[in-house]
């Protein structure tokens, strides 16, 4: 399995090659497109230096000066070789099987979830809501994320099938726009102002408490609406396929609630759909902003090489059993590893984590880590600075 080891972004506004060494790269699957971009037709603190409180401006001057671009490329090449050895020595079960099993277990939990909703007692009913909510987010976040990176299989054909299933049928989004905005833009231009700076997650007209605690409840409604708006940017065949998959996914959920769970009215079924689909919407939004916003931002023509860009602009959160299962390691505790090697599965990102963290620390490069609670307090305290005003561009002192 080839790993990325090159700098992907060449110039602001220039379209990025969607593959590196034949393997595609990713971000939050539901990200709306960046303003002014269209998808091609048819187709997230130890590294913040010891004793330093994590804040919105991680100083690049803290990075040990390198010996120029060639030195930085050599660092990425050396790290890629270390990771490649681990990948080659890993079994299919480690590379793909663990994550496929998690997704399969989620499917097997669906009948229990729908049947629990038949109960008139509070405990079983709430158990059904919890089960369906966790399953929904496992399929739509973890499944879509892995499928977008073709990390579920080494076959491109099957990868396309899984992408359509998880992104369009389960998540009600279009594959072309999801991969373009996440894989090509966010991963290709991580923390580059105007491109991969996560600005699509910002809603400056909302105050901090509405954005952080109320607005996430609207994610299940906004996702298909955004997707429908983006269909004009893809070929008619892809748009028709997306519409069919979206309708099938929604109708199957609705039909099962009426005929298996026993809901008596369409409105009660729709409310239950909203409840289960927004169960983990808060951490979903939080994770997407915690792991990039508040870290260094760069201009497209003055950004560091790949290894510095990812070590500076990406942050890991601690392991969490619920979020690890529902979102995957690559979106939680191994986000740095994921941005360096996005074609790897969640389980492989977890496996290479000790190697990546040790290597970056040995080379005196940042390896950003912070807790969920710490980031939440930071964003509530500095919401205006981080989420309303334009982020400052970090000067590349001591890097280039």
TrEMBL record:
Fatty acid desaturase domain segment(s): 125-369
Keywords: Fatty acid biosynthesis, Fatty acid metabolism, Lipid biosynthesis, Lipid metabolism, Membrane, Transmembrane, Transmembrane helix
Residue ranges of the TM segments: 209-231, 238-260
UniProt KW Transmembrane helix keyword: yes
InterPro entries registered for this protein in UniProt: FA_desaturase_dom (IPR005804), Fatty_acid_desaturase (IPR012171)
GO biological process: fatty acid biosynthetic process
The keyword Iron is assigned to this record: no
GO molecular-function terms, A-Z: oxidoreductase activity, acting on paired donors, with oxidation of a pair of donors resulting in the reduction of molecular oxygen to two molecules of water
One Pfam family from the record: FA_desaturase
Cellular component GO terms, alphabetical: membrane
UniProt region (Disordered), positions on chain: 1-59
Protein name: FADS6 desaturase
Species of origin: Calyptomena viridis
């Amino acid at each position: 399995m080839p790993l990325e080891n090159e700098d992907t972004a060449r110039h602001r506004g220039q379209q990025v090659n969607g593959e590196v060494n034949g393997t595609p790269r990713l971000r939050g699957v539901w990200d709306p497109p960046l303003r002014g971009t269209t998808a091609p037709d048819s187709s997230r603190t130890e590294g913040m230096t010891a004793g330093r409180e994590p804040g919105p401006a991680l100083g690049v001057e803290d990075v040990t000066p390198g010996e120029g671009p060639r030195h930085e490329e050599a660092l990425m090449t050396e790290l890629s070789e270390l990771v490649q050895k681990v990948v080659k020595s890993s079994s299919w079960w480690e590379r793909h099987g663990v994550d496929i099993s998690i997704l399969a277990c989620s499917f097997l939990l669906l009948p229990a979830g729908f049947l629990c909703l038949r109960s008139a007692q509070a405990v079983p009913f709430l158990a059904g809501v919890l089960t369906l909510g966790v399953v929904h987010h496992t399929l739509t976040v973890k499944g879509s994320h892995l499928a977008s990176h073709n990390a579920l299989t080494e076959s491109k054909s099957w990868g396309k099938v899984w992408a359509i299933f998880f992104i369009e049928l389960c998540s009600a989004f279009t594959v072309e726009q999801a991969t373009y905005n996440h894989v090509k833009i966010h991963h290709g231009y991580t923390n580059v102002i105007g491109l991969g700076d996560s600005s699509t997650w910002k809603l400056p007209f909302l105050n901090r408490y509405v954005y952080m605690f109320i607005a996430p409840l609207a994610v299940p409604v906004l996702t298909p609406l955004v997707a429908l708006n983006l269909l004009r940017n893809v070929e008619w065949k892809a748009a028709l396929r997306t519409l069919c998959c979206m309708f099938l996914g929604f109708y199957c959920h609705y039909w099962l609630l009426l005929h298996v769970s026993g809901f008596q009215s369409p409105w009660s079924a729709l409310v239950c759909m909203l409840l289960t689909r927004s169960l983990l919407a808060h951490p979903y939004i939080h994770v997407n902003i915690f792991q990039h916003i508040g870290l260094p931002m760069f201009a497209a023509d003055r950004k560091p090489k790949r290894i510095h860009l990812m070590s500076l602009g990406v942050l890991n959160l601690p392991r969490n059993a619920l979020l690890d299962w529902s979102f995957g390691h690559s979106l939680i505790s191994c986000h740095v590893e994921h941005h360096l090697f996005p074609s790897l599965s969640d389980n492989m990102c977890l496996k290479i984590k000790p190697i990546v963290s040790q290597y970056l620390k040995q080379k005196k490069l940042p390896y950003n880590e912070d807790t969920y609670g710490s980031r939440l307090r930071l964003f509530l305290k500095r919401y205006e600075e981080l989420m309303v005003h334009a982020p400052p561009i970090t000067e590349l002192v001591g890097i280039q």
